[in-house]
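Hi W., the zinc ion complex you wanted:
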Amino acid sequence: MDDDLKGVVEFHGHLCPGVAIGYRVAKYVKEHHPRSEDEELVCIAENKSCSVDAVQQILGCTAGKGNLIINDHGKQAFTFFSRNDGRATRIYFKGDLSKGMDEIRARYFKGELSEEERREFETMRTREMERIIKAPDDELLSVSTVQIPPPRKAQIHPTLRCQECGEGFMEICGRTVNGKVVCMECFEKLTERKA
Ligand SMILES: [Zn+2]
Ligand SMILES: [Zn+2]
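Structure:
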């Protein structure tokens, strides 16, 4: 396990096939772009699964910095946009994970496997992860250059104070109810009570 993978496992909490996928995608990008210290590299992820954590850890595209956008299509695909040169690369993970494993995986998650089947499943899963970690890029990744408009930068909005709970919140998240400007949480509580 190299330092990048170790870092992801520490951040994410465990090694799983999703982490291995994200690791391979992020490693590929790392060879083409430097780590994103600010916002120059933006990732648009088409899923919100374990693989996204590898992108956050290895590439510095994070939810907090605003250079990680999630358009959840339930797909292991990621587009990386560089604000430096306006170029975008889409990477789709094509390495088929589930060949012959769909049924046993479903039963595993339902807790239906016998002790022996469970061990067998875990061996298959480990072998699959090892394959993802080691296989050559062209076996796993389908990479294409795409044209996309620059994603919007993280916006800074003024803070307002909720006239109900007194907590500060971002202006665009405000709502009005009974002539008061309130936060979304209070808005939901106040309108729920009325209904
Ligand atoms: Zn995971
Ligand atoms: Zn409030």
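The beta strands are 41-45, 68-70, 77-82, 88-93, 141-146, 159-161, 168-170, 175-177, 180-182.

W.
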